[in-house]
Amino acid sequence: MVRQPAINAQNRAPLSIERIIEAALQIVDGQGLGRLTMRRLGDALEVEAMAIYHHLPRGKEQLLDGLVAHVAIAPAETRGAAGWREALRDWARGYRARLLDHAGVLPLLVTRRNPAALATTTASLQEVLRLGAIPEAAAAVAAHTLLGYVIGHAALEARGTPDGAGETVDWDARFNGGLDLVLAAINP
Length: 188
What we know:
The chain has two domains: 9-57, Homeodomain-like (Arc Repressor Mutant, subunit A), CATH 1.10.10; 73-184, Tetracycline Repressor, domain 2 (Orthogonal Bundle), CATH 1.10.357.10. Helices cover 65% and strands 0% of the residues. The protein has nine helices and no strands.
């Protein structure tokens, strides 16, 4: 039998907010939000739970805000896109995938007050819209609408509830169809 070397504190990355958030995200992704406790998080990080409070003085509240920020902030990239609509389409598809990958955080994203997390993403979307010559006021409304559409769709998809009893849903087709409608409504 081959013995695995014991992992000691010298071989571990130092405790940081980023490492704490990543470990919490792994717990939520694997076991669900209800299983996230400071003790379980400490065990995953191989530290005493109280050590986490050194980096997150507000405790679990700050941890939950950190999870929302980590998942919610997704800048819209314009590199490689044929135009502003394609950049927004690429962003929306990528953001939906990110939200579904971390579906356990979706309830927090919808219910927690963390305006900075969504404001960063909205500002990024507005910048892409401005590149498409969309006036400032219309860009703000369009960015908000697009963000709401993607989050709402991901929440419904994660819940997995089709419209009718026993109906199977092609979530990709439904998402892309709705996205086409949202993007078509944005006019420079």
